[in-house]
Amino acid sequence: MSINSAMLAGVSGLTANSAALAAISDNIANVNTVGYKRSQVDFQTIVTGGAARGYSAGGVLAHARHFVTQEGLLQRTNSSTDLGISGQGFFVVTENSENLTATDARLFTRAGSFAVDNLGYLRNSAGLFLQGWIADSEGVIAVDPSDLSRLGSINVGAVGGAAEPTTRVSLNANLLSSQPTSDELAAYDPLTNSMAMYDAETGDGVRPDFELQVPISDSKGGKRTIAISFLKSDVPNQWYAEVRAIPASDVVSGAGLANGQIRTGIVAFTQDGRLDVEAMQALGAGALFPDPENATLTFGASDSGAPAAGQVAWASGLGVAEQVVNFNLNSAAGGLTQYDSQSVVQAVITNGTAFGNLTNIEIDEEGFVTAVFDNGVTRRIAQVALATFPSPDSLMPVNGNAFRVSDGSGTFNLKVPGTGGAGLIAPNQLEASTVDLSAEFTGLITTQRAYSASSKIITTADEMLEELIRVKR
Questions:
Q1: Helices 437-472 and 2-29, packing angle to 10 deg
Q2: Mean pLDDT per 10-residue run, the chain (473 residues)?
Q3: How far is residue 342's CA from residue 176's CA, in Å, rounded to a whole number?
Q4: What is the model's pLDDT at position 470?
Q5: pLDDT at 1
Q6: Among 95, 263, 282, 377, which one is most buried in terms of CB atoms within 10 A?
Q7: Among residues 445, 423, 442, which one has the least CA distance to residue 35?
Q8: Which residues contact 287 (CB under 8 A, 6 or more apart)?
Q9: Bridge partners of 414?
């Protein structure tokens, strides 16, 4: 009967508009939810077969639609662990932080309000843990987009202090070319009566004409000092030089070296005051560095045993690793020179740092998570992974403003940020909700009117049925 079908159509209208009201309510409630994607209920007609001379109302069905691909505005924040995505893609997150297995659910979200929890993991406001490719002990990040199990929860609390050994020294110093030769020059011997033995109180050794000190850091970040002493030779444009450790007990020397000496030999200069590379190469083993263009000092590890002749190692009590220090003595901007000007050190520039504590976590556009220490050292500890889908609007929403894979969405594809269609990471930014309050309030009005109209269908059909019943009377 057409009146009954009209009543049922009115009921379907009430149901459909109730669903629309629920979607609008969700949208309004999440207007300030980070990364929230608005939903909308679309209506579709129901057509039923009717008699040849009649009509049967079908009604309406409600179908929820999620605008997952719609991007919200990125808003800047003051937290270095707040992340947005500029473009397509989703953060990969898990409900558990540790001991993940293949059966643990992987969720996907745009809500990047991550913070460091009490165990050091990056977790967002919904309690979901950020996943990425974790760096190994050597700081190498092995990216494998084909294997979801290679991802791990990013932990910044496990990063300890850091130190870097000195590997490079640049000298900018001048030796006075008119320096008179010392009265002690004739007694000078680098092994038995050296500058390294000099003691002003006892009169031992030979007093250097000039000395400079170079601070270096060992493999543990410990501060070590080496000195370079110079004694003017009676050969024009040549100086005797000794490199030694202060204190001498920091090193163990092989045969031919004593009193903390690391290297001894002659430094030669050209007539225009620059380092004479060719003359030093011609001196060979007699030069401080036989090849000044490749001037290096090598310190054996503390546990390397007794060094060979002419070699040195760190003292066993220090417990530090082998170290090679490269010296730049002949730079275009200065280097080691001999001009008729006061002997002076203009600059000593070294790399390497002492032990430093973690002060900050930085994440760049490519998703690299970098630990920053108070000694200036930076260390990459992970790279954030992004996931894309063939049909992201078909993802299944779950609690925590996240999504699961569905049959309609297709399988995920892991990407490095900025590659393969995945967007770049937007550090110090959060994606705002895509809800437009003006549109939602307008939708409230139209939904209310449609609901009222559907209820009017039911009351009208009821009145018509009542009239039909009265015919019998």
A1: 160
A2: 80 88 90 91 81 73 87 92 93 89 88 90 92 85 85 82 83 94 93 93 93 91 92 95 95 94 95 93 93 92 92 94 93 84 91 75 92 77 93 92 92 91 93 91 91 88 84 72
A3: 5
A4: 84
A5: 57
A6: 263
A7: 423
A8: 265, 266, 267, 268, 280, 281
A9: 387
Per 3-state DSSP, what percentage of the chain is helix, strand, and coil (rounded to 5)? 20, 35, 45
DSSP string, 352-376: -EEEE-EEEEEE-TT-EEEEEETTS
Query: For 325, phi and psi rounded to 5 degrees?
Result: -115, 120
Answer whether 220's CB lies under 8 Å from 355's CB.
yes
SS3 label, residue 447 = helix
pLDDT recorded at residue 52:
56
Whole-model pTM? 0.64
Tokens standing for 159? 């990063």
**Strand 251-253 and strand 323-328: pairing?**
unpaired
Q: Which amino acid is at 312?
A: V
- Number of Cβ within 10 Å of residue 418's Cβ equals 17
Peptide bond into 247 cis (omega under 30): yes
β-sheet bridge partners, residue 363? 369
| Residue reference for tokens 């937007």 | 426
- CB count within 10 Å of CB 148 equals 16
CA 257 to chain centre: 45
> According to the model, what pLDDT value does residue 375 have?
67
- Euclidean distance between CA atoms 252 and 262, whole angstroms: 9
Residue among 135, 164, 140 nearest 356 (CA): 164
Tell me the C-alpha distance between 337 and 451, whole Å.
Answer: 92
pLDDT at 355: 65
Distance of CA 114 to the CA centre of its chain: 15
Residue 225: both structure tokens together: 């000092």
